[in-house]
Amino acid sequence: MNDAEARLMTTAANHYGIVSRAQAVAAGMTDKQVDNRIANGRWEVIHPSVYRIAGTPITGRQRAYAASLSMDAIVSHTTAGALLRIDGVRARGVHVTLAYGQRGGQKAKGISVHWSTSLPRTDRVFVDRIPCTNGTRTILDLAADLDDERLETAFESARRMGLTTTVALARRFEALGGRGRPGSARVKKLLDVAGERPLESRLEVKLARLLRQAGHIPAVQHKVGDYRLDFAWPFLLLAVECDGFEHHGYRLAWKRDRRRIAALEAMHWRIIHVTWDDVTLRPEETLARIATALVRAA
């Protein structure tokens, strides 16, 4: 291995075993040397002028980076959502976005290309060295592909991780949204119902939607002393808590939660517990239980 290839292998090691012909030439290799490595199987053609070093693991991040490098584009939509680890988003193929007027690379098989009138640097981040849309822009792009509940789940997840805020989404939507943009109606609904604090899980999103449909509007993530209540009617000292495995799935967490509930009950709060099955399999029964408790507490 010559010095030029050694420099290139350092680049490849930092980018999932992916290199481009342009990178190889910039490192000091010749086109003939590149062609020889392709011919002898040391490099595998992934996209035009983009190669995978033989033996490197094939991963979603490798595919995303290779597509970005091939198209000179930003990873976006469900691919960006998966990279950002947003709840409920699964990568379907590889999606990239370019700004109108931008000269991208050659279109390659397996890459879905989106075009945008606006793709400023403020909409971009690097995730594990892969250029992709940031949390706010990703939520706006996902609005065209996700239904209301999945979009709300994704948005609350992004808020919890600090990837976006209600204010940031509203501002970017004002610039990009409106008639003709797919998903605009969903984003408007999302902004209308978003609380001051993000919901903590998919179960909370499902329950929040169920309560809204029934006309019940509680405080969300209401603070009582050192604790927070998932949903609360403070003047009635009534709360609904979501018992999800992600928060109560191991013994220490369970014991802490029991102490928390005991402390709240000592402050005369009545706590109604609901589970995933309560919300998804028995929604009418669950709403009736909450409605009865509201009447009794009034």
**Average of pLDDT:** 91
Number of self-contained structural domains: 3
As laid out across the biggest beta sheet, the strand order is 9-10-11-12
SSE arrangement, N to C: HEHHEEHEHEEEEHHHHHEEEHHEHH
Overall outline: elongated
Give the DSSP E fraction (strand runs of 2 or more residues). Answer: 15-25%
Overall strand count: 12
Number of helices: 14
By secondary-structure content and strand pairing, the structural class works out as: alpha+beta
What's the end-to-end separation, in Å?
Answer: 79 Å
Rg value: 25 Å
Helix content: 40-55%
Largest sheet: 4 strands, mixed
Poorly predicted runs of 5 or more residues: none
Task: Describe the 3D structure.
The chain is an alpha+beta fold and 298 residues long. The protein folds into three domains: 3-58, Arc Repressor Mutant, subunit A, CATH 1.10.10; 62-193, no CATH class; 202-297, 3-Layer(aba) Sandwich (Endonuclease, Chain A), CATH 3.40.960. Helix content is 47%, strand content 19%. The strands form four sheets. Strands 9-10-11-12 form a four-stranded mixed β-sheet, sandwiched between helices. A three-stranded antiparallel β-sheet has the order 1-3-2, sandwiched between helices. A three-stranded mixed β-sheet has the order 4-5-6. The longest helix has 16 residues, at 251-266. The protein is elongated, with a radius of gyration of 25 Å. The mean pLDDT is 91.
